[in-house]
Design a protein that fits this description.
The chain is of the alpha/beta class. The chain folds into two domains: 301 residues, 3-Layer(aba) Sandwich (Aminopeptidase); 110 residues, Alpha-Beta Plaits (2-Layer Sandwich). The chain contains 13 helices and 16 strands. The strands form three sheets. Strands 1, 2, 3, 4, 5, 6, 7, 14, 15 and 16 form a ten-stranded mixed beta sheet that branches. It has a four-stranded antiparallel beta sheet with strand order 10-12-8-13, covered by helices on one side. A two-stranded antiparallel ribbon has the order 9-11. The longest helix has 19 residues. The chain is globular, with a radius of gyration of 23 Å. The termini are close together. The structure holds zinc ion (ZN). Zinc ion (ZN) binds next to loops. The site of zinc ion (ZN) has 5 residues, from loops.
Length: 419
């Protein structure tokens, strides 16, 4: 049964800005840092406490909670047709080690606020409605990131991911068992069950909405990316005795490569995003000419042809700049630019205008769980502004009014898809 325009307007009006803000502040206590951010890495004690509070809130809403083999949590509000394929929203409660209060948490809490609003507006949907908390979106403690949605949509990856070893030496399988033991009995959920639609709310993590005075970003897709590991091998030697002309200095070669790559990636339209965020020299002693450097490249660009072309030149340029050293370039991950569903985008635009929130279309520079969900069902994303476009930072900030506007959009879109 289709909901009327009046029903959707009632749902939007039932979203409670203060309640949503209070939930953010409650959640931010788990892993709270002195600088006002959170450190809530995947399946740590802090993350498990956040998960436990989520379970408590779900039960207060008379919803069921199920968990799958990678620890994704599914909070379900039943529909009138128990056999109907559900509609979902959600994101992640885990954070970067120096993360903020809103990245990920907003998408989950907007979903919980949606459940409150559906109750307050006395809406019954045909399809069940779910809020998902995906495991390990951030990929800090365990790699790779967006793990929960990847395993959910590609179950053949499960065993490999369960064996991931954390930066602290803990195996993900054991961390997951500890969470299950702490959380108590929960219904098990199979991987890869279908959805009729998925929409994820998130802070923008860029300054476009703020700069243009818009409240809602209608996300058109997620830009493609290529990730590389580069290993430069030279030769260790005494730094006081070995003549300069005979050295094979891996730091000199690798830093020349980094500068050269940055120059190559410059484009007048400012579309490319190129980052060397990790650069490690070995053995790392002041009096030893470095014998090896490993550095990591994260290269993203929405233009598929440009990304293919520039990405294809990385290994060659590194070879050309290696000097007396050897270099090996391994591409460890690549993804194409993923478009979101035009029908979901249209629903988001209409929902924003019903909520009197100015909106604009934009592409996501960052990866999100929604990218994986596009394999399963019509998918979209809703962005709200964050101060100065800052995220992955303890200073991350968003306003209660903007978060509520995002929740109003999500609640309407999910309700519309759930009928
Ligand atoms: Zn996030």
């Amino acid at each position: 049964m289709a909901l009327t325009e009046a029903d959707l307007a009632r749902i939007a009006a039932a979203v409670d800005e203060d309640r949503l803000w209070r939930m953010h502040m409650e959640m931010a206590k788990f892993g709270a840092t002195a600088k006002g951010g959170v450190c809530r890495e995947c399946l740590t004690d802090e993350d498990n406490q956040a998960r436990k509070l989520l379970i408590q809130w779900a039960h207060e809403l008379r919803c069921t909670v199920a968990v799958d083999a990678i620890g994704n949590m599914f909070i379900r509000r039943p529909g009138t047709d128990p056999d109907a394929v559900p509609v979902a929203t959600g994101s992640h409660l885990d954070s970067q080690p120096t993360g903020g209060k809103f990245d990920g948490a907003f998408g989950v809490l907007a979903g919980i606020e949606m459940l409150h609003a559906l109750d307050a507006a006395e809406i019954t949907t045909t399809r069940p409605v779910e809020v998902i908390n995906f495991t390990n979106e951030e990929g800090g403690r365990f790699q790779p990131g967006v793990m929960g949605s990847q395993v959910y949509t590609r179950p053949e990856e499960l065993e490999r991911m369960l064996s991931a070893v954390g930066a602290d030496g803990v195996i993900l399988r054991d961390a997951l068992a500890a969470f299950r033991a702490m959380a108590g009995p929960m219904e098990d959920r199979a991987l890869n069950l279908p959805y009729a639609g998925f929409v994820e709310a998130h802070i923008e993590q860029a300054p476009m909405l703020e700069e243009t005075g818009n409240t809602i970003g209608v996300v058109t897709g997620i830009q493609g990316s290529r990730k590389y590991q580069v290993t430069v091998t030279g030769e260790e030697a005494h730094s006081g005795t070995m003549p300069m002309r005979r050295r094979k200095d891996a730091v000199l070669a690798a830093s020349t490569m980094v500068v050269g790559l940055h120059r190559m990636m410059e484009d007048p339209a400012d579309l490319t995003r190129f980052n060397v965020g990790r650069f490690q020299a070995y053995p790392g002693a002041p009096s030893v000419v470095p014998g090896q450097v490993r550095f990591a490249i994260d290269f993203r660009c929405p233009d598929d042809a440009l990304r293919e072309g520039l990405g294809g030149q990385i290994a060659g340029l590194c070879q050309a700049l290696a000097g007396p050293c050897d270099v090996q370039v391994d591409e460890i991950q690549r993804s194409e630019t993923t478009p979101f569903d035009p029908g979901v985008m249209a629903m988001i635009r209409k929902a924003a205008s019903r909520a009197d929130a100015p909106s604009m279309d934009l592409l996501s520079g960052a990866g999100h769980d929604a990218r994986n969900m596009t394999k399963l069902c019509p998918t979209g994303m809703v962005f709200v502004p964050c101060k100065d476009g800052v995220s992955h930072n303890e200073a991350e900030s968003a306003t209660a009014a903007d978060l509520a506007a995002g929740a109003r959009v999500v609640a309407q879109v999910v309700a519309e898809m759930a009928g």
